[in-house]
Amino acid sequence: MDNPLFLLLSLLLFAVGAAAGTIIMRLTLGPEIAKLKERTEELTRRTEEQNVSSQRLQAENKNLSSFLVMLPDVARRLNSHLDKRNIAPLLASVLQHIFEPAQILVFFTNREEKTLYLAYKKGVPDRVPLGMRVAPTEGMIGWVLMHQVTMDREDFHNQSGVRRGGSVDIALDPSMSIELITPMTYENECLGVICVGGISRRPSDHKRMIKMVADLGSLAVFNHTLYTSFQSMANSDQLTKLSTKRYLLLRLGEEINKAEQGNLPLSVFIFDIDHFKKYNDTHGHLAGDEVLRIVGQLIRQEVREGDTAARYGGEEFVVILPNTTKENGLVMAEKLRQVIASHPFPNATTQPLGKVTISGGVATLGHDGRTTNELLGAADQALYLSKERGRNRVIAYKIRYLSDEEEVPATS
Fold it and tell me: What is the DSSP secondary-structure string of 30-88?
């Protein structure tokens, strides 16, 4: 018969051996298990990162594909002889599609003043007004303009030569941050600068994409300038640099339609140079041409932006005055008459009035005529009345010329 004590001792030894084996196994496999857990966590983290990268890449590809789809239409619209005022908003719509920025500023170059002016803004304070001028040496924008290189926030941070301090930099709210600035260049000439800030969507090739938009804009600006130049040459009188009669008649028709649709006033001023034939006969046609050239120059200096001045024929001129009542048209006509009468023309003292003078008439849409011919005809009748009354004066057209009240006295 088995000894119970022996069996108990055997069971105890077995249990101790099993426990010891478990401890040895744990001590041996524990580090491997920990490494396996760590590798599993790392693999999970990398998988999540890859999923995020894949989603971001898919979003960027979708955004890029969408941009490439819209690109032909944008290019067509930018180069379809748009008014220059429409170029900046169209560029801004493309920038909005790509970057979803909180702030957009588009500047164009003023060649004559050699400055930039703000043509479009979004999300910037009122103290940065449209039309604001920026010198080509001012702040971050000036840096980009001078060096013709696209810069982002990191580039500005690393570039010790760039300092905030231009008029735009100072005027912007300190909480705002312009993150991308790129020049609009064409054949090494900078035609403008584009700035975006508060970007919600940042493609990996963000600098290349904003430069692509800028290049489209610069090409549109260049084409517009070239088209305007050719159009101006075709519609300009070479001697006086004013519009031609053909162009004036087209513009007057357009202005009449605009005035009627908007219920706006519209006046025309027609005048000619007094005793011009005598001046020509006395001093020769070259001297007469010089008088015409100077008169054209004086007209260009006096007319407002939006007015159209033309050489109507020989020594006769017409000025279209949009959004101008008869009273205001008469004031502007009288001012021009005084400017010409006081100018020291060559040989002016040999003229019958002792100086080069003009006589003219003013007529207004609705009151004096509703068509181009009626309006010009009414102004022309007032012109002839001013000659009958002694020249060197302007008169507003009235249906009946029975009173001297319609006359603006000449200044001797």
Answer: HHHHHHHHHHHHHHHHHHHHHHHHHHHHHHHHHHHHHHHHHHHHHHHHHTS---HHHHH
Q: Which residues are catalytic?
A: 315
Let me know: does 317 contact 299? Beta carbons within 8 Å. yes
> Into which CATH architecture does domain 245-406 fall?
2-Layer Sandwich (3.30)
What are the residue boundaries of the structural domains of the chain, listed by start?
Answer: 76-230, 245-406
Cα distances (angstroms) measured from residue 176 to each of 103, 200, 209: 8, 14, 22
Bridge partners (DSSP) listed for residue 194: 106, 182
Residue 59 has pLDDT above 80, yes or no: no
Query: pLDDT per residue over 1-51, tens digit each?
Result: 457 776 776 777 777 666 666 666 666 666 777 777 777 777 777 777 776
Pick among 3.50.50.60, 3.40.50.300, 3.40.50.620, 3.30.450.40: CATH of 76-230: 3.30.450.40
The Cβ of residue 294 has, within 10 Å, a number of other Cβ atoms equal to 17
Taking the CA of residue 251 as centre, how many other CA atoms within 13 Å lie in the half-sphere pointing to its CB? Answer: 20
